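Quick one: HD-GYP domain-containing protein from Rhodoferax aquaticus, structure tokens please.
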Amino acid sequence: MLKKIRVDQLTLGMHLKEFCGSWMEHPFWRSGFVLTDPKDIQAVRSSSIKEVWIDCSKGLDIPDGEVAVSAAESDAQVEAELQVMAVSQRVVTPVSAAEEMDRAAQICFQSKRAVTSMFEEARLGKAVDTEGAKNLVNEITDSVARNSGALISLARLKTADDYTYMHSVAVCAMMIALAKQLGLDDAQTRSAGLAGLMHDLGKAMMPMDVLNKPGKLTEAEFKIIKSHPVEGYKMLRKSPNIDPAVLDVCLYHHEKTDGSGYPKGLKDQEISLFAKMGAVCDVYDAITSNRPYKAGWDPAESIRKMAEWTHGHFDPKIFQAFVKSLGIYPVGSLVRLNSGRLGVVIEQTGKSLTMPMVKVFFSTKSNMRVVPEVIDLSLPTTSDKIAGREDPAQWKFADLNELWSGLPKSPW
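--- reply ---
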């Protein structure tokens, strides 16, 4: 018997099946477990969640004399109710990047916690809960629908220590944006997002000293790291009802169109659409992120470098769609305008890949800061244009990320 109860009715020994509310509102990245720690009950009660579903066949029932909010005979009834609730709570109206930043930062924070837990459970040999991960993907999908640049750009602001976990979040968001750009349907888009989220799960089985080594890997160490797609595949295929796209991207996201990739050295047509998408998103986030052994490249510089690698590495059509989804000058790129002013890209305009919205803040003519001003380069009344990229490492603007995100230096 499945029962919906108030959170104040929760007791140790109950099997918590589902939360009645948004994934963002409760303190756990997944449901479907027996409550064994009083702190978990307190965490639920301290959240905004008011009701939960329990499974009395897998845990304790409410005491005699207490009344449940409602009951259900099957999982399908619970799922139907939760689906209706989820649809009513969804907000996917397009907004500006500035409006989405706070929400995106919250999603990044929650996602990092969820992925960290996912990796820790994988290290312990526990089955991967892909159903719980779908809730996370839904939140990321909605954020990308509201504004594709906000969460993708924020997820790039990871520390070297956070890289493994936040990399999964970033690739998930980019896979969703790329799927939309390619015209994939909603189900395919969510499959792409879930695949991006789970693609590096095999790294949970890698030795931490090798995974986080601050220098160049030896040949033996690189061989170990190259085993992560197969290790992830082995773990994921044990999960019930696993999405085939998740398995495919996990195993083949390091394949290259010229056959020089791994683990199987597949060539162009032998690599699936989803795996080709995963390859592009994986590389972009890797080269734009700070790693234990190097600082990340500027987003615009990364796009330029990847364009040079397209022949033999990426599928050209997939890469072109990827650039359209992010822009030639992605959010966070430092650019010089024809006027001699420097600015940071804060949002794409949708009108031209070379005419984003830029926050100007520095004059190279006077070599000093100016009052920040947002300029939409796509407007016919705007005479200034982008003259080229600038290397942030040379200018050393300590607040560059705060300028484009509008958030504190460490948003999560």
